[in-house]
Amino acid sequence: MSVIKTKGGGMVAAYEPEPQDRWVKTLIRASDNMHCLTVQRISQYQQAVAWAVSMADQFAMPLEIVPFDVNDLVKLNRQRLERGLALLTPDEQHGLRQDVVSTCIQVMRDCDDPSVRSDAYDVLVQMRMIQ
Hints:
Blueprint: E1 2-5, E2 11-14, E3 23-30, E4 33-41, H1 45-55, E5 63-68, H2 70-86, H3 90-110, H4 114-126
Parallel strand pairs: 2-5
Antiparallel strand pairs: 1-2, 3-4, 3-5
Helix pairs in contact: 3-4
């Protein structure tokens, strides 16, 4: 983690992205809660840091730059995802399952990244489409 102090006394804590990270969020602490100010693609990590540094003097608390991946996204939104899936009709659930299977097969066939292909394979195993 890099800590960047501005000339005006503001501060930014920027966590370094990991290879699996796909997005970056800019957070600020207010009382006991963290509030998300922005979410951007990981390719915009440097822009997120630059923006936070330019804005840090406007806030009493430090800004945090936090990269995250799909697993983090699911963990943060698990209950909301489960409630949404529970509202689907059986036909919609079947259609979603077919879409996931088709997408994973396409990823395994066409993706150049071996870790992404491996993840797609793991999904198909968990869905009992492959043994």
